[in-house]
Amino acid sequence: MDPLADEHNQITIAPGITVPASALRFTFARSGGPGGQNVNKLATQATLTISLDDLAAVLPPSALARLKHHAARYLAGDDRLIIASSESRSQLANRKACLTKLRELVVAARHRPKRRKPTRPSRRAIQRRLDAKKQRGQQKRSRHINRNPPRE
Fold first, then answer.
1. What topology is assigned to 10-110 in CATH?
2. Which distant-in-sequence residues (6+ apart) come within 8 Å of 97 by Cβ?
3. Whose CA, among 12, 14, 30, 99, lies 20 to 30 Å from 106?
């Protein structure tokens, strides 16, 4: 039994979003990084592959479009997300790291950005800004006159 799946063979990838364990495909390879000679013997690098079609079943179309935008660096040409991790010496820890990356991408994609409401400065704020500009200009002019008196 997969230690990351629940009793119904579902894996929770984000709050309220579960996918069948069969939708996630893990492959393993030998990885570099920490581990000494151990990395030459064990396949600890985990690569998670999931089809966007499997995610389309659990995500609304707008969130799926945002996911494609956010996860562009993980997208393969045939609409698959490929996430790899070799941060740990443990295969299980690297699998969890892949799922964490996927979870972060899905949570970011589910977040609907707020629409920007264009605002304008008030008439009083515009007037204060213009008054301040005039005051700075007069101050600079007075410095110029005091330093360089007019010639006669």
1. Double Stranded RNA Binding Domain (3.30.160)
2. 46, 85, 87, 88
3. 30
